[in-house]
Design goal:
By secondary structure, the chain is an alpha/beta fold. It has a single domain, classed as Rossmann fold. Helix content is 38%, strand content 21%. It is built from eleven helices and eight strands. Strands 1, 2, 3, 4, 5, 6, 7 and 8 form an eight-stranded mixed β-sheet that branches. Strand 2, helix 6 and strand 3 form a beta-alpha-beta unit. Helix 1 crosses helix 6 and helix 7 crosses helix 10. The protein is globular.
Length: 268
């Protein structure tokens, strides 16, 4: 894939998620075409989506209104085993939902950094941080392939249904390896392809922004992570995720091709 093709995909994704953020700010319903899991202006609907992804009611109660937009395909905090004092990096942090959940886990001596390439999402997250008085969380504008984060400075990287959107996943894992400390870990929820994707799905811009067309197969993800230097790689598909994935693009049968998975690895 050429750099121009990379940029085209990145711009499509940025535009799609800018619409999600702006519609959410205005209290409009974006619909499934705008995101992985379909965004609604109805907090009860978003709460239902998030509990299906593995979040608890306590999790939802502890974030500012508007942070939970029903985006994602799992709960990275559930596999992150966060500890007080750790520095956490959230790739594609959106409205800040997972970053805010990480905040109390790492405590006052810890630090949470969210990185997102969509300015309107970044503004939303920063406003949410002020509303929720999260003093150990910050949000930075940047691409997950080229993180605005220092070398060897992060203990844990989390991410929720974002890496599949990248047109250069090898570079994502290379840069994740760069910023992690020795012994640092990945704790990611994402979608993986359960079979080879047909060309009509691969080439559909809508399905790319809907977290389908860019999904890699498990062996491909393992190869990316091994090449970057990661060890103790563990990818666990979740068959039950098909129940909510089918709602991302109703009638397209995408649940036959992609599935949610938890992805873990260690930087030696």
């Amino acid at each position: 894939m050429t750099q121009d093709q990379h940029d085209t995909i990145r711009n499509q994704v940025r535009s799609s998620y800018a619409e999600v953020a702006e519609a959410s700010n205005q209290g409009d319903c974006c619909g499934v075409e705008s995101s992985c899991c379909g965004v609604s202006d109805d907090a009860q609907i978003n709460s239902l989506i998030s509990t299906r992804l593995g979040y608890s009611e306590d999790d939802l109660a502890n974030v500012p209104d508007g942070a939970d937009m029903g985006l994602g395909c799992g709960n990275p905090k559930a596999i992150a085993s966060l500890k007080p004092g750790e520095t956490v990096l959230d790739l594609g942090s959106g409205g800040g939902f997972d970053a805010f959940l990480a905040s109390p886990e790492v405590g006052e001596k810890g630090h949470v950094i969210g990185v997102d390439m969509t300015p309107s999402m970044l503004s939303k997250a920063r406003n949410n941080a002020i509303k929720g008085k999260f003093t150990n969380v910050e949000f930075r504008l940047g691409e997950i392939e080229h993180l605005p984060v220092a070398d060897n400075s992060v203990d844990v990287i989390i991410s929720n249904c974002v890496i599949n959107l990248s047109p250069n996943k090898q570079q994502v894992f290379n840069d994740a390896f760069r910023v992690l400390k020795s012994g640092g870990r990945l704790a990611i929820s994402d979608v993986v392809a359960s079979t080879e994707l047909p060309d009509d799905i691969k080439n559909d811009p809508f399905l790319h922004s809907a977290c389908v067309s860019g999904a890699s197969q498990i062996n491909e993800l393992e190869a990316f992570m091994k090449k970057a230097g990661f060890t103790q790689i563990k990818i666990q598909p979740k068959d039950e995720s098909r129940a909510f994935i089918k709602d991302w693009a109703p009638g397209s049968n995408i649940e036959d091709y992609v599935i949610s998975a938890s992805i873990e690895a260690i930087k030696p």
